[in-house]
Amino acid sequence: MEFLENPDKRGDIPPEQLLSMIPVKQGDVILDVGAGTGYLTIPAAKATGGPVYALDLDPDMLKMIESKAKEYGLTDVRTVNANIDDIPLPDVSVDIALASLVLHEIDPLSKSLQQIRKVLRPGGYFVCVELEKEESGNNHHPRISVKDMEQEMVMAGFSVIKKLKPTDKVYILIAQK
User: What's the pLDDT at 140?
Assistant: First the structure.
C-alpha cells in the first residue's frame, strides 16, 4: 500500500498535477479504473464535486477509499467492486476515465479499453498512466510500451491527443472518445 500511496516510489506525478492536464469541470462524472487506495479517486472527487466511481477488484482497497472519502467529507465517491473488462456503469455516463498503473496487468487489453470507451460520453477524456517497458527485459512486473499502448488505444477507437513523459520510466497518454 505504501507504494500505491507514494508519488516518489510510483515514479509518478502528483494526482492534482495529472488532473490539471485535462479540463475537469465542476460536476464531471469520473471513473477511476483500478482505483487501488484512491490515489486518484480522492483528488478527482475534490476537483469535480460530481460523482467519482472507484472501480477495483479488491474489496479491502474499496473500504480504504470509502474511509478516506468519509474523512474528507466527500459524499459523491462511489466504490464499484468489478473487473475492468465488464464495467457495470451505464453506457455514455462518464466524462473522464482514469487508469493509473493498472492496464499493464490486463490481458487482453482490447476488451477493457472497449469497456472504458463504452462508458465514456462522446468527447470524454481517457487518461492512461503507465510504466514504460524496459528494453533489458529485466522487468519484475509486466509492462507495455508507450508505442504499444497508443496503438491499442487507437484500435479501440480513441484519439490520442497528448503524450507526456514526466520521467524516463513513466508515460501519460491523454485520449478522447
Answer: 60
Output phi, psi for 29, to 5 deg: -95, 125
**Consecutive H or E run containing 89:** none
Lowest mean pLDDT among 83-87, 104-108, 159-163: 104-108
| CATH number of domain containing 165 | 3.40.50.150
Q: Into how many domains does the chain fold?
A: 1
Q: Which tens digit of pLDDT belongs to each residue from 114-144?
A: 999 999 999 999 999 998 887 665 556 678 8
Question: Considering only CA atoms, which of 100, 104, 113, 85 is closest in space to residue 142?
Answer: 104
pLDDT at 9: 44
Q: Taking the CB of residue 96, how many other CB atoms lie within 10 A of it? A: 25
Beta-strand ranges (E) seen in the chain are 30-33, 52-56, 77-81, 94-100, 120-131, 159-164, 170-176
Cβ of 73: how many Cβ atoms within 10 Å? 8
Asked if 43 contacts 67 with a C-beta cutoff of 8 angstroms, the reply is no
**Residue 32's domain spans which residues?**
2-176
